[in-house]
Write a structure and sequence with these properties.
alpha/beta
Amino acid sequence: MTQSSALLTGFQAIQCIRNNTLKVEAYVRDCLDRIASRDAQVCAWTYIEPEALLRQARELDRQENKGLLHGLPIGIKDVIMTCDMPTQYNSPIYYRHYPNVDAACISILRNAGALILGKTDTVEFAAMGRRAVTTNPFDHARTPGGSSSGSGAAVADYHVPVTLGTQTGGSIIRPASFCGVYAMKPTWNAVSSEGLKRYAASLDTLGWYGRCVDDLIVLSHIYNIIPTQDILAFPLKGARIAYYCQPEWDKAEQETRDAMSNAILAMQEAGVSVEKLVLPSEFNQLNDAQSVIMYSEGTVAFLQEYRRAKHLLHEDFQGQVENRRGISKAQIVHAYDLAAKCRMLFDQATSMYDAILTPSAPGEATLGLKSTGDSVFNRSISLLHAPCINIPAYKGPNALPVGLTLTGPRYSDEKLLAVAKAIAPVLVRSGGWSLPYVLS
């Protein structure tokens, strides 16, 4: 039996389409068939229009000039504006809302030849309030993580090879860890946020999911984060990688502790020099500072919905706009100042290393769908504006994925991708996790 093209990585699919060994229409049909057979349980999508997609696919097959992403289906988190699909933010205020304009990031994808497959489910406004109905593809009783719930699950369950998500605290990296896929949150503001629903403007970052590091590289090139797709081979022997047990290390479950220990050993056996990163005491306050900034900027972000349709706005957002947490102006100023200071200190402390290894999540995906899990290991990295990549390499006690994060100084995205491409096979061999159908 011929394997479904839905099982390809995005990078593989691009090569097949360009080599004329895969038609876009056939590829889209395989993705739609997978969605039809699986999404009743996974619930990753809020909008898909199959007939319109097949018409677009046939048109792409007729085109002779092919962009870098020609025919690649991409899923879009439903907080990102699309001109031909509803953008509903998982909010009754925006039910069947058509903004009739593409976000900047979507326009760039279309100009590269990508096919926007549909919108993926999200936590309300990518913030709080209503949860996505999406389940974890490997255990439907568990969360896929949030707020990019549908984006992470859709890639993991072979609905679509690549998706877009957003991160304010841990909303790209945590779902990637829980769903066992690769993901990248680039340096803050390296990609335009025009057309995204913003929660906290000084934190929100567009990122993407894929099934291999090459998928992340392709999108990084399209968004001009790296100049070429040809990442130079990174020699592991003699490389310097530090591991960072964050101040919240006591929140790490045994599977994450084991993953860190096994990764350190695997890197050392591959010839990597591994050291522990110790940062100044100011970093102990970063998670609290991230919360202060996020909630204070959210007060501004949701004021328009509060004034226009308070009765439809979830109680969580009403409390945020009303500042029920009692965050003072002095706290806000202190948080911004601390973040600025720690960004410089972090860049200085990490510049001597090729990458920093940290946890992606406390452990396996948590049981239940009311919580999307704890972003305790992500928030400080987001506040530091550092790029980060989830590598899904390890298994927990329930045979579910446990990811680890590679990070580094601001604007070290290209170096980080090179390290990730080299180190991922080493970590996967030591950890045993891989998506069940990825074709080598």
